[in-house]
Amino acid sequence: MRLSQTRRHWNRLAQADPLWVVLTEKGKENNGWQIDEFFANGRRIVDDELAGVRAHHPALRYGAALDFGCGVGRLSQALAGHFDTVTGVDISEEMLAHARRYNTHGHRVRYLHNSHSDLRLLASNQFDFVYSLITLQHMEPVYARRYINEFARVAAPGGVILFQIPSESYQDPPDRTLLTLWFPTFWKRFKRRMRRWLNLWFAFEPFMEMHAIPRQEVEAVLRATGLEILVVYKYGATGSEIESWGYLARKP
């Protein structure tokens, strides 16, 4: 999907069930999340993540943090318990409206809308900690690579970057070629593809796209930006069907 299409789908998802599309736990769909429970989950995640960061980089600074793909602010609010200021960035205006409503930290947390394929709204060299969780997988890899480059740009010298992305695709296998199909099947598939195409643009049935970038490719992007890779580790629950990696890097 183009970013404009991704934005449209996430706005529709945010209108329907904003907490569950951020954290898709079984039994929590249909607005089943309790607000306190939802944000407590974010605090646990951030506390654990920062403990891991300190194990590899004890000199972590606690000035400014960036939460890329902040959604309704689950992790931004948690980061505010550790950092002086937090900036949450998201492609969905609807998500950001929820985030501002749930903000309990006043001016210390700000939320910005960004629909560009870069982070031009943010100055270079300003964040001590750049963080992105379960976000880069929801966009085409060409955009994810650009944002990783932007993470390096906006991080302060000596700053730390932590993000996660799967290394294998979630995509369904492609359809058989239409040339092998007889007419009735061809017509059914044509209508299905047209419906998918229209849905991409108009989001009458909004969905989360899922993508992956191989680990070797992500590491190459990080090195090309001049970042020092501190550790790459398996991300997610043991036994997960999808292989995902966490990347912790430092800007010299």
Approximate shape? globular
Helical segment count: 8
User: Uncertain runs with pLDDT below 50, 5 residues or more?
Assistant: 170-183
Counting DSSP E segments of at least 2 residues, the number of strands comes to: 7
How confident overall, as mean pLDDT? 89
Order of helix and strand elements from N to C terminus: HHHEHEHEEHEHHEE
Question: Helical proportion?
Answer: 40-55%
Rounded to the nearest angstrom, the radius of gyration is 19 Å
Strand order of the largest sheet: 3-2-1-4-5-7-6
Supply the helix-strand structural class: alpha/beta
Reported for the largest beta sheet, the result is: 7 strands, mixed
State the distance separating the first and last CA atoms: 34 Å
Proportion of beta-strand residues: 15-25%
Q: What report would you give on this structure?
A:
This protein is of the alpha/beta class and 252 residues long. Helices cover 40% and strands 19% of the residues. The chain contains eight helices and seven strands. Strands 3-2-1-4-5-7-6 form a seven-stranded mixed sheet, sandwiched between helices. Helix 5 (93-102) links the parallel strand 2 (85-90) and strand 3. It is globular, with a radius of gyration of 19 Å.
